[in-house]
User: What shape does this take?
Amino acid sequence: VPLMNRPRIQAVVPTYDNRDELDRCVTSLLAQTVALAQILVCVDGSADGTLELLARRSRSDARVVPLTHLDGVNHGRAAARNLALARLDGDYTWFVDSDMDAAPAAVERHLAIASASRVSVGQVEYVNAEQNPWAGYLNTRGRHRYSQGASLPETQFTTANAVVPTELVSTEKGFDERFATYGGEDIDFAIRL
Assistant: This one.
C-alpha cells in the first residue's frame, strides 16, 4: 500500500503501576510492520516510575505520547482511556493493554479485518498459562472460544487488543467513566458501538 494511502493508526494504552510490562509493550508497538502514527499512553495515577520511563521514550520517539489526569490520581481504565479522546485524529484506534506484547504484524492483521468488518478484536494469549492455572483457564474462555475471523457478540468485545474506526470512538465519546473498577466498560462500549 503506498504510504499516502495507508490509514493513520493511533494506539491507546491505559496503564497503572505497570512500568516494566509497559516498556515491553511500547517496544512491541514501535516494531509493528505497519507504523503507528502515535502511541497514546494513558497513565492512570502511576507512582512506579512510569512517567519517567515515558519521558525517556518520548524523547527518543515522538510517537510515544504520555497523557495523565490533572490530579495525578487513579480513576480507572475507562477514565484513563478517555484521556486520549481529544488526541484521536486518525483513521483507526488500536486499544492495547499495557501488559501486552504485540506480535510484529498485529496491527496489519487487525487492519485486514477492520477494513471489511469495521471492528477487529484480537486474541490475547497468556504466555504463563503452563505455570499459572488462572492464565491457562483464561486462554480457553471468552474470545478464545471463537475461531479467528469469526463474528463476535458484543459480550466478547475487549479493549485488550481491538481496532475500532476512530470516528466510532469519537461518536460514542469513549468509555463510561462510571465504570471505575475493572470490567463492564468494554461491554458497555461494544453495545453502544
Observations:
- The chain has seven helices and six strands.
- The CA atoms of residues 96 and 161 lie 5 Å apart.
- The beta strands are 9-15, 38-43, 64-68, 92-96, 120-121, 161-165.
- The radius of gyration is 16 Å.
